[in-house]
Amino acid sequence: MLSLTSTQISMLIGSLWWPFCRIMGAFMIMPLLGNAYVPVTVRILLSLSIAVLISHLIPSVPPVDALSLSAVYLAIEQLLIGVMLGFILYLLLHVMTLLGTIMSMQMGLAIAIMNDPATGDANPILSQWFLLFGTLIFLALDGHLVAIGVLVDSFRLWPIGSDLFSLPLLGFVHRVGWLFAAALMLALPAVLAMLMVNITFGVLSRSAPSLNIFSLGFPMTMLMGLLCVLLSLSGVPERYSDLCLEALAFMYQFIGGAV
């Protein structure tokens, strides 16, 4: 008759429960899978399926009683690691949202706001369009598959039971600054073009005060902004692809991988 001790039962449960917590934490915030359009049941079943498939690849888990406070702390720790890994990709896609916001403010489309039912946020329409554009680029690069692969490798590079505070948390905080820098880099050509248009209409208003600048300047600014958006379609994808690779590389390095 097969007999198992409580420690063995706890380790068997832990070999499935701890990976599930880390994967579920990433899927809670990761783009696409973390979207409100994806039901919670689907995310739970997908996380559980991946945890079952990789359970034999995970190094030995620490012998922790499943009903102790240590098990609760370990579960929260794995959940936070998954959330941080997913948040890196969350910042990546919101580079395009910030890009659309900057361009909308420059061309006068910031008042054209659409409520996003997925997040509950109110973003300019141009931001929603750029977000969709960036999502398609990310999927075309198979970034979602690479992200899941990095998440699976995290159990080998950063085994369950490793200290959470030993992760490069300072570099993780710097990714917020990277978000603004990347969005500004993509929007800089359009911002400079719109600045030249505004300077031109400023000089025109001084040289011809009788000319109604507001009735002429707004449509011209709008046309110039739409032209900048059109020209961005040829340059943004290549640069955004580099940003995707940079974000995935940092995601791998964050858990101790070497690129």
Structure description:
With 259 residues, this protein is mainly alpha-helical. It has one domain (6-254). It is built from seven helices and two strands. It has helices at 6-29, 40-53, 69-107, 125-140, 143-157, 169-207, 213-254; strands at residues 113-115, 122-124. Strands 1-2 form a two-stranded antiparallel sheet. Strand 1 (113-115) and strand 2 form a beta hairpin. Helix 1 (6-29) runs parallel beside helix 3 (69-107) and helix 3 (69-107) crosses helix 4 (125-140). It is elongated. It is a multi-pass membrane protein. The chain crosses the membrane at residues 12-34, 40-59, 71-92, 129-152, 172-199, 211-233. InterPro entries: FliR, T3SS_IM_R.
Number of domains: 1
Distance from first to last alpha carbon: 49 Å
Main β-sheet description: 2 strands, antiparallel
Q: Assign a percent range to the helix content.
A: over 70%
**SSE arrangement, N to C:** HHHEEHHHH
Could you give the count of β-strands?
2
Count of alpha and pi helical runs = 7
Please tell me how large the radius of gyration is: 24 Å
Taking strands numbered 1, 2, ... along the chain, how are they ordered across the largest sheet?
1-2
Poorly predicted ranges (pLDDT <50, ≥5 residues)? none
Overall mean confidence score, pLDDT: 80
Percent of residues in β-strands: under 5%
Q: SS-based structural class?
A: mainly alpha
| Shape verdict | elongated
Membrane topology: Multi-pass membrane protein
Protein name: Flagellar biosynthetic protein FliR
Pfam families: Bac_export_1 (PF01311)
Family: Belongs to the FliR/MopE/SpaR family.
